[in-house]
Fold:
Amino acid sequence: MKADVLRVQGLQVHYHTPLGAVKAADNISFSLKADERLGFAGESGSGKSTMALAILRMIKPPGQIEAGEVWLDGLNLMTLSEEEMRQVRLARIALVPQGSMNSLNPVTRIKEQIADALTDHGVRMSKRQVEERVRDLLQSVGLRPEVANMFPHELSGGMKQRACIAIAISLHPKVIIADEPTSALDVVVQKQVMETLARVQKDLEASVILVGHDMGVVAQFVDRLGVMYAGKLVEVSPVRDIFTKPLHPYTQMLIASLPSLEQKGTFQGIPGLPPLLRDLPPGCAFHPRCPYAFDRCQTEEPLSREARPNCWAACHLLS
Amino acid sequence: MTTLLEARHVTKIFGGGLFDRNSIVALEGFSMAIDGDRPSITAVVGESGSGKTTLARLLLGLVTPTRGQVLYKGRDLQRMAHADWRAFRRDVQVIFQDPYEVYNPFYRVDHVLTTPVSKFKLASSKAEARALIEDVLKAVGLRSEETLGRFPHQLSGGQRQRVMVARALLLRPRLILADEPVSMVDASLRASILGSLRNMNLELGISIMYITHDLATAYQISENIVVLYRGSVAEAGDVELVVKHPQHPYTQLLISSIPLASAERTWTTETVVGPAGLQAAGSAGCKFADRCPFATSPCLQAAPPLFQTNRYRAVSCYLYQSAPALSVEEMVKAFAEPAKLSRVGSSGTPMTA
Structure:
């Protein structure tokens, strides 16, 4: 049994709006093992990106982390000072952001952007060493050395995304959080970028948290998968279990809504709409759309329980 | 057979003249026809830059082809009389990708529904108009009391897109062009929007042209499929054949790259392809040659024609040059009759309204 690298306990993030608090992430707990790839899937507004950013303490006002602990190698990130946290980011836990196309500085060459990250975290190196390091990093994400001297606009979407991965791994972090790293990329390029991420994860023996709306991409990449709905983590199980024996009704219906290439006419939508996060229904947030809902679902919020070894879900049907 | 809408050798080049180095060939030598008698669902699949949106805009007459013609009931869109345009705008409806941008935020959503009713004089009284609108909303799974009277920002993306489908339906068109209608909608709502498109085809006899980057949804709803690669047709034909047994190396690459949401790992092999380079306008050869593992010297010299490898499928690749090459006229015919119609009798046969 491998040790936990990251443990998230009761994480809660609210966005404060004039209409009331939006509970974007509510009481989220999970742990990430060494060398593990853990995925979070959910529809828009399910709180998956909020959760990813909250782990890195990158939530900006009006958002606020209300409660929770994030333990990284015996260090509670929530208790660190802003400066200490800044040093932990990238060095020990790094982010591959959503829409990397827009996260690179358009007027700086790629090598300077990578070198920036290094020097900012106190790496002292000669110019020659920096160049060498940049070349190695680019090579490890499958980019040619010439890319170092290019500007972001000279790169394709997939290349930019790889440059972002190169920056993320520049200090050999233990945990890499990838937030929708391939949204807006074509499927062929998407597969290549995910292969790159898989390769660097293996090389660094790091753990990866992958957040995405596309169940397919997440399923193909991760070992374990968490499903989010209305700010809550409704199920976390190994990928195989999620698809063969889903526990939560939402997981079952979400999988049924995905089009397959095997058989025609097999996908069906989920009736109803996701709830407003500032006005959640009482009890289980999914009960208005759930075909199996009964009295208890309307009044009491289900707690996450281990229904099978390693498979956790929050549903009253399982108790 | 009468042809409702037909593209004949259509080429669209953006940018300067033919010899301008910066011009971009968005679509090259494209031909296809939508049958007026037998309602069909055709999917056009391609990655970004493959020319699928340009194709939609050409078919709608929003852009002028550089070469070739788009014909509505045999009449060239570019030279059509006012009365024909009016008929065209009724027969051919479009659903755009972005359900957020198509609305004027100052108007209630009713506006997009009442405008076509009054412009095309679909109803003689207010009550009749209201009944008509309620009917189409019901057909796409919306409750009129929850939809009418609201502003666009009060509806979710999925609801807005369904109102757009309802608007298209209102005019009882013969063809709906849907350009990425569900790419901005969540998975759980995607299925119901695509389901209502399919029902329109089956129950009301409306032909659908579904333009998308998502092969899985294309497979789910269409009978025929056209795979575009950088402005040219790579492979076209019956959807079961193309998706289950792809023949063009690009189609094979595309299908093997799709992340399947299943317990099985299908992303097992590492992808070995070159990066997609940009090709200057007018360069000869197969557009996929620079990424193709099977490329040989003929591929670089002249673009392959469409080879008909099977009665219901054509592939633009020299690997199949033993099969007869299709002329453009034949290609139009090849798409007009999908294999499904001759194979299955009951479930696949659409009812003509």
Summary: Chain B has a mean pLDDT of 83. The radius of gyration of chain B is 21 Å. The first helix of chain B runs from residue 52 to 59. The longest strand of chain B covers residues 3-14.
